[in-house]
Amino acid sequence: MPIKIPIDLPAYTVLSDENIFVMNIERAQTQDIRPLQIAVLNLMPIKIQSENQLLRYLSNTPLQVEITLLQTKTYTSQNTPIEHLKKFYKYFDEVKNKKFDGLIITGAPVETIEFEDVAYWNELEEIMEWSKKNVFSTLHICWGAQAALYYHHNISKKALKKKIFGVFQHRVNKINEDLTRGLDDIFYAPHSRHTTTSKEDIEKNENLEILSESEEAGLFIIATKDKRQIFITGHLEYDRDTLKSEYLRDINNGKDIDIPKNYFPKDDIKETPMVRWRGSANIVFGNWLNYCIYQNTPFKLENIE
After folding, report:
1. Residue 262: its pLDDT value, please?
2. Which residues are known binding-site members?
3. How far apart are CA 96 and CA 259, in angstroms?
4. Residues contacting 113, CB < 8 A, separation 6+
5. Fewest CB atoms less than 10 Å from the CB: which of 7, 70, 124, 228?
6. Percent of the chain with pLDDT over 70
7. Structural domains present in the chain
């Protein structure tokens, strides 16, 4: 089954051109099936790009998925047309009385700011608290993962001397876990962050498990034992050129930043970056939708608790 999104959302054309099966809402309404209700709290500055990336992997499943895009009310993106936000996004107040099978909380470029100093922190706290009883499984990405570990489990982020930036090898810690099922023993994933989470802090928490990590990049996939909360410290959803765009942006802003590791052939920025994480991204997002949500979520959304 396809992903269910408005036909005029930019991702509809992008994914259709990639031969990914997307279905407009009008056609989906004729099918006698309950789609998975997935909300995406998009905290990334360039929201259309982030939509395309996430919807690409949420669509690679036999399940029908209906997406609700969320934005914060306490901070409005300066890098996305306001018309797009008004047309396709909702505020939390509009959905807080609903329940969802899944929720994705994206990363955000605010790592160097204390959590409580982020403009929308109070609103994010409200959403994360709401997710505990109104969402069956929540997937947190990069800064979103660090924010959730801090809020739910009192685990603080730690500043790095140098940004973790590039594509890194990871290993699977538990090969029989549903979320990592099908991943190679060694697989690749992009990272782009100035902060990290201590392995020791995670291991002290009896409800958390480390499912994957990297010798260079540190912890990668962390989850509660019931998989109701997933924390991914990197960016499996990134496109081929996302790290390149971030690198050129920082260089143009006069920042001292290294070329992303293991990304450009021969570290030549004129070369086309190699994508080595697409298969792993398809597996992890597919496993989350299938094993962590579809196989366990109540058929009646109102029974989520």
Report:
1. 97
2. 163, 192, 249
3. 42
4. none
5. 7
6. 92
7. 3-303 (3.40.50.880)
Scanning the structure block, which residue is given the tokens 């995670």? 202
Per-residue pLDDT tens over the stretch 272-298: 999 999 999 999 999 999 999 998 999
- pLDDT per residue over 133-155, tens digit each? 999 999 999 999 999 999 999 99
Amino acid letter for position 219: L
Q: Kindly report the length of the chain.
A: 305
Phi, psi (deg, nearest 5) at residue 291: -80, -40
Residues marked active site are found at: 142, 235, 237
Binding residue numbers for substrate: 163, 192, 249
Predicted pLDDT at 34? 79
Which of 168, 228, 223 has its CA nearest to residue 192? 168
What are the angstrom distances between the C-alpha of 290 and each of 20, 75, 172, 189? 18, 33, 19, 21
Position 75 confidence tier, pLDDT thresholds 50, 70, 90: very high
Compute φ and ψ for 94, nearest 5 degrees: -80, -15
d(CA 253, CA 187): 32
Strands (E), the chain: 3-4, 22-23, 36-41, 65-71, 89-91, 100-105, 135-141, 158-172, 186-196, 208-214, 218-224, 229-232
Please state, in angstroms and rounded to a whole number, the distance separating the CA atoms of residues 32 and 23: 14
With a cut of 50, say whether residue 1 has pLDDT above it: no
Is the pLDDT reported for residue 167 higher than 80? Answer: yes
pLDDT at 103: 98
